[in-house]
């Protein structure tokens, strides 16, 4: 039994909320509706962002699809995300991988051999996920010197950041993993596995280099998007950020403060500077910004902000049971739509603030 | 026997031997695989368990390189706590009960520390050393440490209710806190090693904790910590005091609470 199977996991925080349009989108992207995922539909931008996280439909140019599954297992395991881990495992079983092979993959992802290229990549992904300390340009340079191309490193960093985004909100909401584990063990699924595996393999495809359109070269965190230009990852990141920014459920100031807290907590000066710039444009005084960030609180904060900002901090390094209980406590003060907005934004912030390694100078 | 039948027999025997060898090899490979799986699982669980004693990055470095990690200079906040009245209690209560009381106290204080992102670095006698910002960078470590001190004070009041109900005297606590730079790492010898911070900052924090008895203040913080914490913490200045090893008198404050909460006395 692996350690992740001992990770505490509460009941799913929210009930499933059917939404025909979003369900169609999930089926088109994932082939089916992942269990529990419909609890996010009250936050439409978050629901629309999820298909953008599919890494098997032309996202990856340099990263082998089978290797990407190893990265997924390693990072989900590291983040103790039972949902994402079960999802990946289930996917691998449906692809036709024998249980023994999957167990070997789990071991390889846990004990990465830094002497191999794959091992170095897993190590880089893991350290990026933990960001303790945050990765810098020196770490990127070390990967380049080890034989990775700029595109490989950027893509690996983006894939890791994407996994973190999914791990975060799946864990915070305590999405149910048991149905995923049960699904791949159903007798009918086991019988149809060879056929399903062939279909799934047929749907997987690598991506091709592509450049951003002119209108995609600006917007929040454009420095990150531009650093990924040339890869399909750039467009995906832009789309996810634009979806999050289009939502008006929370005041712009609160949204930016969430990003500021996560940037400060992780230790990402680029992200913090970007958010500071946007907050100053919004009219917040520099002293007020510094005070709020220094103490995660201020007499000038709205009641909801005073609860949301400390919660944003909690999402930086999480223990599953603990963050799930904190989310439940926050839900007593915020309605479902606002809670989902907070969960979505903190998950995006954790993704974005770890990704800055692709921009930093050595 | 005809040559053909001899050949057939030989082929059968050879096939049987090869099949037997293959089966044996397959069984051995599977056994090795199972052992490897079990070992990997044990290593994972061991790593998780060791997380209580040292930071994850330190454990991984030990696994990878087999040697203790280098020290690292960090900004840290140090909390020293000591029980008042424990010596008197130890003379009245039989040993088993004393240990039980002490352990109950430590569990309570550990929970208060952990709940505010502190790392319980050591327990010595009835003393506690907690570190904030030593394992992972924590830009809010100063506030966390002070909140932890207030939580420890609150939890002790609650624990005292239990003791009084058992006919025992309540305990009191003296907590000293300081913020500064120190070298964090695994310190010790082959026989005993612990993750801690060394340097002037930790020495000064210990001296500040000693002052709680002399100055009759439950929680004392230094100026360098007060400059970092939320202005909504309530503190009042104490007389500048000389401590061993520091040439200038120390500017210190008694912490009385948090805005909106009732004052703590003592």
Q: Bin the strand percentage of chain A.
A: under 5%
Main pleated-sheet profile of chain B: 8 strands, mixed
Give the termini separation of chain B. Answer: 107 Å
Estimated helix fraction of chain B: 40-55%
Largest interface: pair, residues per side = A-B, 24 and 22 residues
Structural class of chain B: alpha+beta
Supply the number of helical segments of chain A.
18
Q: What share of the residues of chain A lie within helices?
A: 55-70%
Oligomeric grouping of the chains = heterodimer
Shape of chain B: elongated
Low confidence ranges of chain B: none
Poorly predicted tracts of residues of chain A: none
- Content-based structural category of chain A: mainly alpha
* SSE pattern of chain B: HHEHHEEHEEHEHEE
Largest sheet of chain A: none
Helix count from the secondary structure assignment of chain B: 7
Mean pLDDT of chain A: 91
Secondary structure tally: strands of chain B: 8
Describe this structure in words.
Chain A has helices at 20-30, 44-49, 65-78, 82-95, 99-110, 117-130, 137-145, 150-172, 178-184, 187-203, 222-227, 232-246, 252-266, 269-282, 286-295, 303-314, 320-331, 336-355. Chain A is mainly α. Chain B has 266 residues and is α+β, with helices and mostly antiparallel strands. In chain B, strands 1, 2, 3, 4, 5, 6, 7 and 8 form an 8-stranded mixed beta sheet that branches. In chain B, helix 4 packs antiparallel against helix 5. In chain B, 31% of the residues are buried. The mean pLDDT of chain B is 86. The interface between A and B is medium-sized, with 24 and 22 residues.
